[in-house]
UniProtKB/TrEMBL annotation:
<dbReference type="InterPro" id="IPR004601">
    <property type="entry name" value="UvdE"/>
</dbReference>
<keyword id="KW-0228">DNA excision</keyword>
<keyword id="KW-0378">Hydrolase</keyword>
<dbReference type="InterPro" id="IPR036237">
    <property type="entry name" value="Xyl_isomerase-like_sf"/>
</dbReference>
<keyword id="KW-0234">DNA repair</keyword>
<dbReference type="Pfam" id="PF03851">
    <property type="entry name" value="UvdE"/>
</dbReference>
<dbReference type="GO" id="GO:0004519">
    <property type="term" value="F:endonuclease activity"/>
</dbReference>
<keyword id="KW-0255">Endonuclease</keyword>
<keyword id="KW-0540">Nuclease</keyword>
<protein>
    <submittedName>
        <fullName>UV DNA damage repair endonuclease UvsE</fullName>
    </submittedName>
</protein>
<keyword id="KW-0227">DNA damage</keyword>
DNA sequence: ATGAGTCAAGGTGAA
DNA sequence: TTCACCTTGACTCAT
């Protein structure tokens, strides 16, 4: 079991998201930003290893305009060594990383331009994993997409697009149950059609479900991951922010809820991404709870 | 130097 | 029909 947090480290003064405006695009700025972003990515991973956070979600902006036609800078070759260095570090420490392309990636859009741009974004993010030399257990996570008033047609269109994705993307793509439109059961239908694994989100499951008990839902999702090709199931963990709109993530982990959730896990092996606002602070508390119940090694690795 | 407004991109649903 | 919300910082420009 690995614990992680998404995209941003709040303890370090180093980010993987330095960027600039499209209007001020230049090759020089791409060069500068990617150089900074990869340096910080490695630094964050090093920081994480020291605290036994072995799971990390990398943000979409490591390469500014990475899938935009304006960006013709050969970052793949210019930064090949730096990407490889990150990948080597991940492998050396038995870490796992993932990407979560944002809401603009919609594979089931009825607009072919949007589908094509979405595929290009997935190709860009998948190519970073290729450059790192990381295999298909490191994932690209997206939602099924829009509903467009007809669930059946929307799911069919997702499947049709999935089947024509480049292999480098398809091998790594996973779908996540969402909180309003496509439930775990919808994702299972897509899985049965094309074999895509389901990244389970416990909070979305609480928001949108068909009455399955949490323990059963977890096992249904886990069974969609091929042990060697996909690795153990990845999941997102969060809980409701009190007094806020339904679906809003909590600012800080609620330890009692997390303990109860760990009980639902039983002996299931999963890697957990904590989608909680205070990032690594809550990840540390989650690790503490998992050590208490014997699901993580009792002590941190030897001091750096 | 600082604060406010803005940033490539889609879709949903409330107002 | 418009706008806030996904999530959030970081950039950009006006002051």
């Amino acid at each position: 079991m690995k614990i992680g947090y998404p995209c941003v480290n709040e303890s370090l003064d180093c980010t993987t998201t330095s960027t600039f405006r499209l209007a001020s695009y230049s090759d020089e700025r791409v060069e500068l930003a990617v150089s900074n972003n990869l340096r910080c990515l490695l630094r964050i991973l090093q920081w994480n290893v020291e605290r036994h956070f072995l799971f990390f979600r990398v943000g979409s902006g490591v390469v500014p305009f990475g899938s935009h036609p304006i960006n013709t800078y050969p970052w793949q070759t210019r930064f090949a060594a730096q990407f490889r260095e990150v990948g080597d570090f991940v492998k050396a420490h038995d870490m796992r990383i993932s990407f979560h392309p944002d809401q603009f990636v919609v594979l089931n859009s009825h607009n072919e331009d949007i589908v094509e741009r979405s595929i290009q974004e997935l190709v860009y993010q998948g190519s970073m994993l290729d450059l790192m030399g990381l295999d298909s257990t490191h994932k690209l996570q997206i939602h099924v997409g829009g509903l467009y008033g007809d669930r059946e047609v929307a799911i069919a269109r997702f499947i049709a697009t999935y089947e024509r994705l480049p292999e480098a993307v398809r091998a790594r793509l996973v779908i996540e149950n969402d909180d309003r439109l496509f439930s775990l059961q919808d994702c299972l239908r897509v899985h049965r059609a094309v074999g895509i694994p389901i990244l389970f989100d416990n909070f979305h499951q609480e928001c949108l479900n068909h009455g399955e008990p949490m323990a059963e839902a977890l096992r249904l999702a886990a069974a969609t991951w091929h042990p060697t090709h996909d690795g153990v199931m990845m999941m997102d963990y969060s809980s409701q922010a009190h007094g806020e709109r339904k679906g809003k993530h909590t600012a800080s982990i609620e330890e009692d809820l997390f303990r109860a959730f760990v009980q639902e896990l039983g002996d299931l092996d999963v890697d957990i991404m904590l989608e909680i606002k205070d990032k690594e602070a809550s990840a540390g508390r989650a690790c503490g709870i998992l050590r208490d119940v014997g699901r993580l090694a009792a002590s941190l690795p030897a001091a750096q």
